[in-house]
Amino acid sequence: MNESSTPLVLVADDDADILALVKFRLERAGYAVLAASDGEEALRLATEQSPDLAVLDVMMPKLDGYEVTSRLRQREETRDVPVILLTARVQEADVARGFEAGADDYVKKPFSPQELGARVQAILGRR
Amino acid sequence: VIQTLSWSAVGLFVLGVFFVCLLAARRLHLARREQRRREAEERLRPFALALVEGVADGLAKPGRRDRPILAGLLERYARHVRGSPRERIADFFERAGEVEREIRALSGVRAWRRATAAYLLGAMGSHLAERPLRAALGDPNRDVRAAAARSLGRLGAAGAVRPLVYSLIRGDIPRTVAAEALLGIGPAALVPLRGLLVHPEAEVKTVAAELVGLLGDAADAAALHDLLTDTSAEVRAKAARALGRLGAQEAAAGLRVALDDRIPFVRAAAANAIGMIGDHDAGERLLALAREDRFEAAQAAARALACVDGTALLAAARDPANGQHVAEAASVLEVRS
Question: Is the dihedral of CA B191, B195, B196, B202 positive or negative?
C-alpha cells in the first residue's frame, strides 16, 4: 500500500485521450496518478508502486483489463487493491466477467469524469 | 539510334532522380507538419482538458490559428465523455461558430464536404444540429446519409427515430449504421419505437419489435405479445425474439402457442424465447418439435429444452428415436456442465 498521504491511483488505457481525461480529473481531485498504456505496464506499475486503487480499461493491448484484475488478485502485494473497470462493454455477461475477475466497480464508456471521480472517492473513502 | 537511346536513358535517369527528390521533400514536409501539429496539441492539451472540466475561465485563450487543432482535440474528447463535459464541448463549438459553419456545409455542393460536416456535427455534440442532420438523411449521397444517421445516434436525437427507421427500411443507409444509431439513442428512442409497434406496415413493426427487444423493459411485454398473432411471419418472429430478450415470463403462454405457428422460423424464434425465459411447462412440446420439426425449428427446440429442463433432455437423448438435435443439445449440455 502507498505510504504517502496522497492516495495513489493507477490508470491504464491504451487511448491517450482517455488517459489524459481521467488523469486530469483525478489529479484535480487531489490524487497522485500513475499512467499506463497497456496491461503489462499496468501490472508492472501496480506491483512496483502499490497504488491505492486502479482504474483499468477492459480492451487493452498485451493484457486485457480482466486479466490484469485477475493477476492483481493472485499476487500477495496487490490482492487488496480496489479495481474499477472502464469499459464500453456493458452486456450483462461482460459486467459479470469483470466482477468474477475481482473488479470492485465498473464505469461505462463514454464516461462522466465526475461520476468516475465520485466512485474513486467512494471506494477510497471506505478504506 | 544509339545516341538517341543514350540521351533517352540519361533523360529518364534525371527524371527518376527528380521524382525521388520530390517524394522525399513531400514526405519531409508532411512529417514536419505532423510534428508541428503534435507539438501544438501538447501545448493546447491543458486548455482543452480545463475546458472539458469547466475550469478554463482563468486561462489564456488560444489564438485563432490554434482553433482548428483545439477543435480536433475537443472533438476526440467528446467521443469519450458524457454529461456536462460533453455539453461544455458543444457549447464551445457553438460559441466558436463551428456548429453554424458545419450546418451551412451540409448544403454544400461537394458530397465529401457534406459527409464531413455531418460527421463533425455528431462529434461536436450540439443539439442545434439535430434538425439539419435529420434533413441530411434525405441527402442524395449515401455517405452523407450514413454520416448523418451516425451523428444523430451520437446526439441521442429521439426525434430522429422515425426517420431513421424509415431510412433503414428503404435501404437509404446501411443496416448496421442505422441499427447502431438507433441503439445509440438508447432508452430515449423507446417512446417513438413503442408507437411504431402498431404501425400499419409490417416492415416498420419488424424493426420496431427488434429494437424494443434490445432497449425495452418488462412494460413492453404486452405490446410485443400482441404481435405474436400478427399477419406477418417476420413480425411474429421478431416479437418472439424480443420477448425472449426481455425475459417476459408473462408471455410464456403466447410463446407456447407460437410453437405451433405454421412458419418454421417463427417456431424456431418462439423456442429460442422459451429457452431464454425458462418456461418449464413447454418441455413436452419442445421435445416433440426437436424430434419431428424441420432443421432450424428442431435445433432451436432442442437447445431450448436444454435450458428449461436439462434432465428431460438428457433422458430423451438416450433414445436414438428422438433424433440428432436432441443428441447434439444433450452433448453440449454435458460438456458445459
Answer: positive
Is B55 part of the contact surface with chain A (CB cutoff 8 Å)?
yes
Q: Give the dihedral of Cα atoms A32, A38, A44, A49; nearest 10 deg.
A: 0
Question: Does the reported pTM lie above 0.90?
Answer: no
CA distance B277 to B227: 18
The ipTM of this complex is 0.87
Separation of alpha carbons A77 and B109, rounded Å: 63
Q: Which of B50, B77, B81 sits opposite A112 (nearest CB)?
A: B81
3-state secondary structure of A9: strand
Contact B85 A112 (CB under 8 A): yes
Q: What is the pLDDT of residues B122-148, one digit of tens each?
A: 888 899 999 999 999 999 999 999 999
Considering only CB atoms, which chain B residues are within 8 Å of A15? 80
**The three three-digit cell numbers of residue A118, written as one number:** 465520485
Q: How far apart are the first and last CA of chain A?
A: 12
* A15 SS3 class: coil
pLDDT in tens, B64-122: 778 778 888 888 898 889 889 989 989 988 988 889 999 999 999 999 999 999 998 98
Q: Kindly report the number of other CB atoms within 10 A of residue A44's CB atom.
A: 12
Yes or no: say if B84 and A110 are a contact pair by the CB < 8 Å rule: no
A10 φ, ψ (degrees, to nearest 5): -90, 130
**Letter for the amino acid at B124?**
M
Bridge partners (DSSP) of residue A12 are: A36, A56
Residues paired with residue A10 on neighbouring β-strands, in sequence order: A34, A54
How far CA B259 is from CA of B246, B270, B301, in Å, comes to: 18, 6, 9
CA dihedral B73, B79, B84, B85 (to 10 degrees): -20
Between CA A79 and CA A81 the distance in angstroms is 6
Of B53, B82, B84, the CB nearest to A25: B53
C-alpha B160/C-alpha B162 separation (Å) is: 6
**Which H or E element spans position A117?**
helix A113-126
* Min Cα–Cα distance to chain B from A116, Å: 11
Q: For B247, what's the count of Cα atoms within 13 Å in the CB-facing half-sphere? A: 2
How far apart are alpha carbons B155 and B147 in whole angstroms?
12
Q: Identify the CA nearest to B124 among candidates B116, B135, B113.
A: B116
Q: Which three cell numbers stand for residue A126?
A: 471506505
CB-based contact B324:B295 (threshold 8 Å): no
Q: Which amino acid is at B106?
A: L
- Which residue of chain A has the CA closest to B76? A17
